[in-house]
Design a protein that fits this description.
single chain; about 425 residues; mainly beta; 4-stranded antiparallel β-sheet; 6 helices; 32 strands
């Protein structure tokens, strides 16, 4: 198919598209589901990461960030608005607040507080520190916790977070501008790491230090003399353990980073190196014991693998179908193990990003769209689709500039696909 035709389909939505022409893997015809923008210009909107709750429990209100520029790094004085879209009021934008602690890839950690039907949280910078706001969108009652958060326990009482100053020093685009890393000259400092935060009292405690983890579990030779940091934390569905990535840059911080995936209890105990390969990328909990991750286990090819926490068991998922790295979650339908929601990075001459659903029981993939990403969206300010699901698993949102108005949030109706998968499974 000609590039111009591909782009017309990417911009328009739900025509038939030979998937093999788009991603070079299949030749079957794939019907794309309906998609529409739920935010609009002149400002730009996005939600960012894929592992946060964007939809409220009623699936009516959809959280998003709003900003007036693109294509450069955030500066310390750049402020974004945070708000939500009312899907039952003509996609009305409702402003909730603002933030001075944000990045293009993960926003300001804006998300609905688990276990609440009306409370949202997001990070900000105030009085020389990174903080977290807690807002009830119904009562408008707001309070501020004196430390930024990353992931929240399912009961909404506890958060854990890395040092965003350290991340900004190690990998700009995932930390926050405005505060320098006080440990920047130290390779594996004992004074920073991961904090546990009580979301009721606001108290926090350093539970894991870089100095400790840099020496834990044997590691490999590249850790010697390397500069270390933590990123990408996620509570398990029962709240008893959380994942974190230990990353290091060899040669005193000058080399490319390597990664291990570990788990621990919320107080930093019972540590386990789940994936020691050095190649862990995106991941998600399938259930309280299993973790799906893109990686290259030792002696195996790159792919998505299902790890058993605290056990030496691993199996590949989606072999021959889920063949490229993406942002993976399990759709909350049925037992929560049937559907993997995922995407690809820009591919081919058309630079098409391809969110999709993978049906685990049948091994089938269902494309949700093929969206053109202009080349100027690259590096730190790229716009990954980062697909997120509604609480009932019938809708998906993505961030994309394919409509010509810069990055905006788009809604995809996947109910037909989910229902067809149920019928097929029988």
């Amino acid at each position: 198919m000609a590039l111009a035709a591909l782009l017309r389909l990417a911009l328009g939505g739900a025509a038939l598209l030979p998937a093999g022409d788009a991603v070079g893997e299949e030749n079957e015809m794939t019907a794309l589901p309906p998609v529409r923008a739920i935010t609009r210009g002149p400002k730009f909107h996005w939600f960012a990461y894929y592992d946060k709750l964007q939809f409220d429990p009623t699936n009516r209100f959809v959280l998003a960030n709003e900003v007036g520029f693109e294509h450069r790094s955030p500066k310390a004085d750049d402020v974004i608005d945070v708000g939500m879209v009312d899907l039952k009021a003509g996609d009305k934008w409702i402003r909730l607040g603002d933030s001075r602690a944000w990045n293009w890839q993960q926003g300001c950690m804006l998300q609905w507080l688990p276990s609440s039907d009306s409370t949202v949280v997001w990070n900000d910078r105030q009085d020389g520190r990174f903080v977290c706001h807690v807002l009830d969108v119904k009562t408008k009652k707001k309070r501020t916790i004196g430390r930024a958060i990353y992931t929240v326990s399912p009961d909404g009482t506890t958060a854990v977070a890395p040092d965003f100053r350290r991340i900004q020093d190690m990998r700009p685009g995932y930390g926050y501008a405005g505060l320098p890393d006080p440990h920047a000259k130290q390779m594996a400092p004992a004074g920073t790491g991961i904090w546990r935060i009580d979301l009721t009292t606001g108290r926090s405690k350093l539970i894991l230090t870089l100095a400790r983890i840099a020496k834990f579990g044997g590691g490999d030779a590249s850790m010697v003399g390397a500069k270390h940091y933590f990123n990408h934390l996620l509570f398990g569905p029962d709240g008893k353990r959380f994942i974190f990535l230990h990353r290091w840059r060899p040669d005193g911080g000058k080399g490319g980073f390597r990664t291990r995936m570990l788990t621990a209890t919320p107080d930093g105990k019972d540590l386990c190196v789940v994936d020691p390969s050095g190649h862990t990328s995106h991941f998600i909990w399938r259930d309280a014991e299993h973790i799906l991750a893109w990686t290259r286990p030792r002696g195996k090819a790159s792919g998505f693998y299902l790890f058993t926490d605290r056990a030496d068991r691993v199996e590949q998922v989606g072999k021959g179908v889920m063949t490229v790295n993406g942002h993976c979650t399990y759709l909350p339908v049925g037992d929560g193990r049937q559907w993997v929601l995922n995407d690809t990075y820009p591919r081919g001459a058309g630079r098409l990003q391809n969110p999709y659903l993978f049906h685990v029981p049948t091994g089938r993939r269902f494309w949700l769209g093929h969206f053109h990403l202009p080349r100027k969206y690259s590096g730190e300010w790229r716009c990954d689709t980062h697909p997120r699901f509604s609480r009932d698993g019938r809708m998906v949102t993505i961030d994309s500039p394919h409509g010509g108005s810069g990055r905006q949030v788009h809604l995809i109706d996947v109910s037909g696909i989910v229902e067809s998968g149920r019928d097929e499974q029988g």
